[in-house]
């Protein structure tokens, strides 16, 4: 008789159902985990609302995953055993294509992502396939690490990769636009890397108030004040060394360019909705010698660094989690995230 579990299944854009599905069967070279915590990510919300070009419907989404091993295949040769507490990396690169060989695993031409190409973590159980076990990054958690806090490793890895690439360093003035969980991670990591002045920009007064706890030196409510003028005022008209647009808004990307000082760096971290186009003042870029970066994803080494930051406590992952909710309440969790009421919601299947 087939066993049943509950899962949040996306049947198409705007069509998410919390329903009974068949529980995955553990193959002889596979591992089955019981999902203990899964993070609600902004990219998941976009996929739920608007779809994703790589999604195969119906699909169990969710890629920020921590769980416990409940079954190991008879021919599995790895070192995981029943009872192990695992963090599941969300990128499965092939390690064979040219980007992988050059160390750009996040740009793998054959990349597989749980919750997009294969079933993810919005379910009671998740199957770790042979490919996921061989090419993914799956780590046994320390006994004192909570499942909920470990889901922050994945977004932190992308934040870490970004700040490594643009070299946030001692004495820098850094602006972060958008105080969702990723924006707050950028604020705290920039502080850890030695930035001397961090300016947080956000339209939601509720989120802006939360951002102060993560190390922002200045808070700008962009719904009430011109953020470009405020940044210029704070920096005595010089502008910022690094500006990170961490929200999916065309206006934020345009403002980021105007906030940067001479020889400054602008990062478009948050992608904008499909069909939206950002018009940039290229003369400002040209005459101020600005560097514009696009960023998403991370490599294996970035994930390891993020994992270290969380398990060592150097970055306090627990305080990002404003709510822990049952998976069946995922629609409510999405509403709370979009309204700004929550910074990070962890779902518990």
Folded structure, characterized:
With about 350 residues, this protein is an alpha/beta fold. It folds into two domains: about 5-150 and about 315-349, Quinone Oxidoreductase, Chain A, domain 1; about 155-295, NAD(P)-binding Rossmann-like Domain (Rossmann fold, 3-Layer(aba) Sandwich), CATH 3.40.50.720. Helix content is about 30%, strand content about 25%. The strands form three sheets. Strands 3, 5, 6, 7, 8, 15 and 16 form a seven-stranded mixed beta sheet that branches. A six-stranded parallel beta sheet has the order 11-10-9-12-13-14, with helices on both faces. Strands 2-1-4 form a three-stranded antiparallel beta sheet, with helices on one face. A hairpin with a 2-residue loop joins β1 (about 5-10) and β2 (about 15-20). The mean pLDDT is about 95.
């Amino acid at each position: 008789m087939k066993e049943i579990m509950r899962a949040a299944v996306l049947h198409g854009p705007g069509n998410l159902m919390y329903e009974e599905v068949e529980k995955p069967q553990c193959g002889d070279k596979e591992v089955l985990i019981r999902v203990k915590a899964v993070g609600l990510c902004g990219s998941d919300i976009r996929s739920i609302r608007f779809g994703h070009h790589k999604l195969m419907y119906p699909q169990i989404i969710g890629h920020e995953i921590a769980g416990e091993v409940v079954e190991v295949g008879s021919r599995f040769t790895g070192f995981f055993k029943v009872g192990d507490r695992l963090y599941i990396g969300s990128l499965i690169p092939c390690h064979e294509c040219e980007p992988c060989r050059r160390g750009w695993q996040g740009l793998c031409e054959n990349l597989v992502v749980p919750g997009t190409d294969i079933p993810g973590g919005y379910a009671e159980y998740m199957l770790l396939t042979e490919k996921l076990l061989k090419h993914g990054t799956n780590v046994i958690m320390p006994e004192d690490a909570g499942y909920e806090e470990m889901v922050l490793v994945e977004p932190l890895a992308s934040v870490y990769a970004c700040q490594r690439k643009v070299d946030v360093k001692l004495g820098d003035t850094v602006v972060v636009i958008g105080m969702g969980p990723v924006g707050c991670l950028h604020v705290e990591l920039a502080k850890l890397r030695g930035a001397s002045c961090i300016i947080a920009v956000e339209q939601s007064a509720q989120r802006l108030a939360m951002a102060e706890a993560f190390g922002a030196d200045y808070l700008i409510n962009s719904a009430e004040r011109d953020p470009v003028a405020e940044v210029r005022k704070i920096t005595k008209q010089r502008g910022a060394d690094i500006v990170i647009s961490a929200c999916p808004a065309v206006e934020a990307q345009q403002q980021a360019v105007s906030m940067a000082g001479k020889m400054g760096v602008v990062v478009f971290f948050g992608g904008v909705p499909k069909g939206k186009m950002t018009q940039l003042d290229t003369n400002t870029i040209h005459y101020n010698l600005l560097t514009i970066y696009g960023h998403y994803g991370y490599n294996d080494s970035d994930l390891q660094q993020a994992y270290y930051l969380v398990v060592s406590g150097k970055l306090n992952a627990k305080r990002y989690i404003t709510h822990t909710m049952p998976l069946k309440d995922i629609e409510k969790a999405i509403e709370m995230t979009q309204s700004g009421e929550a910074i990070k919601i962890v779902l518990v299947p």
